[in-house]
Specification:
Chain lengths: 279, 367
């Protein structure tokens, strides 16, 4: 209970940062925004990196022979770290821009309610998985399941909230008009943020425009489907980046308590059996 | 016993934590509600959409301030230029007009010192006493000889029309300059794609239409209604009153006032003396002779006295009339300038008000 409450408290911090970003983000210059982006990237990277390492460890232990040189080469070095860093940086950009542009109060509440849900789900799943999953991979597996379950619960809620938001009527305008006018509605002091916001606005306008094309005939259902799928995909990416940040925060908080993964080289040297057996 | 104390501590600690977490969640929940209000303090001022001559422009709020300032300055300059133009044009026109009026003064003086004029004045005085004629005969003659012969009213009207058309041209030029300023300032902010129909847009076309109305027919109507129109109508009497004032104020004015009485006594003395001296031996024809001789003597005396009066006072009369004309010119110029100033002030104030009305909502939105 205490641990759950502590986790909950820790998770309020990134939410508060994101809320502050939503309130003041458009008025901030590029410098502070860059600092926030780096912070988000670092936190996300922490979660992504530990989980990637764990997955790689499991894969090598399961599929590679103990004596193979690839076990050492693929154990997770700069390449894996670089890939996770790029992923974290991109997700941080997506999250930052989406959060600054998120005007729907209902969506904010879904994000807030998602926090205790995530902590509870993680606690329950972890407890349920303890007898079944190797302690070595328990953190990674429990987080993977929690994030996916949480995503499945929050995504419909966010989509439902989005249904009640009013969108500009774009059925009668050209695509160029729709995109241009949505782009110019964006306002930010930082030119870098403004550019990103305009890209996101263009994506939204494209989705709304496609979704509102009610012309009968060629490609009509495909247009609409494509438009709404685009918007849903963007919504999903935003939610996923949020959950990665939240999971990264808890990963950082519990960094010291994670069981260290045994080094694969030592496993080779002292192999009395596959590492997977110990995990 | 010892084991229950930490458990209790732990439970109370967890309860406190739960309370704290709940409070934090509640605070953040409320913060999501207040978010929109707090955002406005941080959000940068949005650009303004302007529509002008079929094009749409998206102008940063601070540039809109500059546009408003430029517009106000352009029309303030226009007003100043219009006043300068009125002053110089009126001065030049009135100089020409009054130069021609001054050329009529010798003719008026010749008439004034003629026997016909003398007897007309006496006749009109008698008729006036008998309520058979309007007074101010000399003033009317001054109007006819000096002003009407120089075509004063028509030329003054033409001068006014010229001034007005120049002012209208000046107003058009000011508008054209403003238009060029606006297009130059806005060219960098043109929207390649027109905004949606429901977009909030400030129309500079409406402003231009308002500005054109202030410098058009409405302006001429207001000017025609002003008092400057009637300025030249009573110029003759005005001039003669000014001349009379000057002559009476001068010491020789007393001579002017006493002149009629003196001439009357002289006429009577000369006519009676001449008649008696010439026709005394004439018998029954003496009466007719006396009348003829008396009349001739009367006329001769009048002529001689008029010549004497002219020699003594003509220069003074001319000087009084010239300074009266100068005074009339100054008064007329001031009267016209006042009228034009009032109309120009009203015209350009209306233009500035239109500019202000157009840009103030934009500023309010920006603040």
């Amino acid at each position: 209970m205490r641990r759950l409450l502590n986790d909950m408290l820790w998770l309020l911090l990134p939410f508060a940062i994101l809320l502050a970003l939503n309130i003041a983000g458009t008025g901030l210059p590029t410098g502070p925004l860059l600092a926030v982006w780096l912070l988000l990237t670092a936190v996300m990277f922490a979660g992504l990196w530990t989980r990637a390492l764990s997955r790689r460890h499991a894969f090598l232990s399961a599929y590679m022979h103990a004596g193979s040189v690839w076990r050492r080469r693929w154990r997770g070095g700069p390449l894996l770290a670089g890939a996770q860093l790029v992923q974290a940086a991109l997700l941080a950009v997506v999250l930052l821009v989406a959060v600054v542009r998120l005007d729907d109060t209902a969506a904010w509440r879904v994000l807030l309610v998602g926090l205790p849900l995530l902590v509870l789900l993680h606690g329950l799943l972890r407890r349920w998985m303890v007898p079944h999953v190797s302690p070595l991979y328990l953190p990674e597996l429990s987080w993977r399941l929690t994030l996916r379950l949480n995503f499945l619960l929050m995504f419909p809620a966010l989509a439902l909230a989005a249904l009640y938001v009013s969108y500009p009527a774009l059925a009668e305008v050209t695509l160029k008009q729709a995109i241009w006018n949505e782009m110019i509605r964006q306002e930010a002091s930082s030119q870098a943020l403004l550019g990103l916001m305009q890209v996101a606005a263009a994506k939204d306008a494209l989705g709304w425009w496609l979704g509102q094309q009610l012309l009968p005939g060629l490609g009509e259902p495909l247009f609409q489907l494509g438009g709404w799928l685009l918007l849903l995909a963007a919504e999903g990416l935003f939610l996923w980046s949020y959950l990665v940040l939240v999971a990264g925060t808890l990963d950082l908080v519990h960094w010291r308590r994670r069981p260290p993964l045994p080094t694969l080289t030592s496993a080779v040297e002292n192999s009395k059996g596959p590492v997977g057996e110990r995990g | 016993m010892t084991a229950t104390v930490p458990v209790k501590h732990e439970r109370s600690g967890s309860a406190l934590r739960l309370l704290f977490v709940t409070a934090c969640l509640l605070a953040l929940w409320l913060a999501t509600e207040q978010r929109a209000d707090w955002q406005s303090a941080w959000r940068p001022v949005p650009p303004v959409q302007l529509a002008f001559e079929g094009e749409s422009y998206r102008v940063p709020a601070e540039r809109v301030e500059t546009l408003a300032l430029l517009s106000a300055l352009r029309f303030a300059d226009g007003e100043e230029e219009a006043r300068r133009l009125v002053r110089s044009h009126l001065r030049r026109g009135l100089d020409n007009l009054f130069h021609d009026l001054a050329a009529q003064l010798p003719e008026f003086a010749d008439w004034y010192y003629s026997l016909g004029s003398e007897y007309m004045r006496i006749s009109m005085l008698l008729l006036e006493k008998a309520n058979l004629a309007d007074g101010d005969y000399v003033a009317r003659r001054a109007q006819a000889v000096i002003f009407d012969q120089a075509d004063f009213d028509r030329r003054l009207g033409a001068l006014r029309q010229q001034t007005e058309s120049r002012l209208l041209r000046q107003a058009r030029m000011t508008r054209a300059g403003w238009l060029a300023d606006m297009l130059e300032e806005l060219s960098a902010h043109r929207m390649p794609v027109p905004p949606p129909d429901d977009a909030e847009t400030v129309s500079l076309d409406e402003l231009l239409a308002g500005l054109s109305a202030h410098g058009g027919a409405e302006f001429s109507t207001r000017l025609s209604a002003s008092g400057a129109v009637a300025a030249g109508a009573a110029a003759g009497p005005l001039l003669w009153r000014a001349v009379s004032r000057r002559l009476v104020a001068a010491s020789s004015g007393r001579a002017l006032a006493a002149r009629g009485t003196g001439r009357g006594a002289a006429r009577f003395g000369t006519a009676a003396g001449g008649g008696m001296a010439v026709c005394a031996p004439g018998g029954p024809a003496a009466i007719a002779c006396a009348l003829a001789a008396g009349t001739a003597g009367w006329l001769a005396a009048d002529w001689a006295l008029l010549r004497l009066d002219e020699v003594l006072n003509r220069d003074e009369l001319m000087a009084a009339m010239e300074s009266g004309l100068a005074e009339l010119r100054d008064e007329l110029e001031q009267q016209l300038l006042d009228a034009y100033d009032a109309v120009l002030a009203e015209q350009y104030a209306a233009m500035q008000a239109d500019i202000e009305r157009t840009f103030v909502p934009v500023r309010a939105a920006g603040n």
